[in-house]
Design a protein that fits this description.
Distance between the termini: 41 Å
Low-confidence stretches: 1-7
Order of helices and strands: H
Largest sheet: none
Helix content: 25-40%
Length: 52
């Protein structure tokens, strides 16, 4: 991959997807962070997120 295809610092840019009305889908990183917050909250409540 050439340098023009990469984002700043040589990191691949994240692809952004949009609904037809122009609203952006959440990114993979946002969903991953959301899932981690949920898993942490479940652990605080004494539940194992891997067993649900």
């Amino acid at each position: 991959m050439d340098s023009l295809s990469r984002g700043a610092g040589g990191i691949e840019p994240e692809m952004l997807l949009f609904y037809p009305d122009g609203q952006a889908f959440t990114s993979y990183n946002e969903e991953k962070q959301r899932a981690e917050r949920l898993a942490n909250k479940l652990r605080e409540l004494g539940l194992n997120p891997d067993e649900i």
